[in-house]
Amino acid sequence: MTATEMSSSDSSNTYQKPHPYHVEHHEVPKLHPNHSHRSFISSIHLHGDGNELVTIGGHTYYRHDLMSAFGGSLNPGVTPFPKYNINPAPLGLFAFGVGCLLMGLFNARVMGITIPNLTVSIACFYGGISSAISGILEFFTGNTFAFTLLISYAGFWFSYAAIFMPSMGIAIAYEGTDQFENAVGLYLIGWTIWTFIVVSLLLKSTAALLSMFLFLMLTFLVMACASFTGDMGVSRAGGVIGIITSVIAFYNAFAGVATPFNSYIVPPVVVLPEIEFGE
């Protein structure tokens, strides 16, 4: 909807676009006197008779048409309501949670299992494929963050599974050398850096969303250290952290599908406080 169309609409109109349960009225902060007027007004501007309109990046919306940060939709901040009323994020989150759970259990050596090859099946046919489908659907909802995130981690699951596939020849190529574990460590360091970047983009989101990727970053980092050192204790610690990551992923996924209409339990959304920095 354009600004012209909105200005001609009555804000008291009884019709409102239907929202999923998690959407809240987000109070956009007013212009602080210590902030630069020119830089602030170009990003967010409140106007209208009752400040019912907000302009973000040159586009004008009703404030009740904005979504707040929410882990169940992988939404890191205030955004316009998507054009398509679909939330593909829980599919990717559930796939991510199951993959992290099984990988964590194997790394923690639960039930004495030391061969992790069974993770190949879940990494490919649930973690990878489901994350890719979810990411593609997020493209059509306009959620750039979720699209980038889910497609990237789909690539992680596929590439991680390929390490253990004999037909790929990755592990076989390192036979007769002591380079394989170090190579896996470098592979995990790369994903640690990538996840750190994701964490830096979630400091204004929700506690559940930030904590999930914070623990994921720690999982990658600890497992990289386990690969470099060959220490079984470090590997088990990485597995335990991975299990914690999966639990938080399940929480976010459940929050994305649970409503008062289908569940007696609706997880609360804890939005992180925004820190204001002076000049």
Task: Set down the secondary structure blueprint.
Elements: H1 3-7, H2 37-41, E1 44-47, E2 53-56, E3 59-62, E4 66-67, E5 79-80, H3 89-107, H4 119-141, H5 144-163, H6 180-200, H7 207-229, H8 232-257
Antiparallel strand pairs: 1-2, 2-3, 4-5
Helix pairs in contact: 3-4, 3-5, 3-8, 4-5, 6-7, 7-8
Brief characterization of the structure:
It contains 8 helices and 5 strands; from the N terminus they run ααβββββαααααα. The protein is mostly helical and 279 residues long.
Could you explain how this protein is built, in words?
By secondary structure, the protein is mainly α. Helix content is 51%, strand content 6%. It has eight helices and five strands, in the order H-H-E-E-E-E-E-H-H-H-H-H-H. It has helices spanning 3-7, 37-41, 89-107, 119-141, 144-163, 180-200, 207-229, 232-257, and strands at 44-47, 53-56, 59-62, 66-67, 79-80. A three-stranded antiparallel sheet has the order 1-2-3, with no helix packed on it. A two-stranded antiparallel sheet has the order 4-5. Helix 3 (89-107) packs antiparallel against helix 4 (119-141), helix 3 (89-107) packs parallel to helix 5 and helix 4 (119-141) runs antiparallel to helix 5. The longest helix has 26 residues, at 232-257. It is elongated and about 75 Å long. The two termini are 35 Å apart. Residues 1-42 have low confidence and may be disordered.
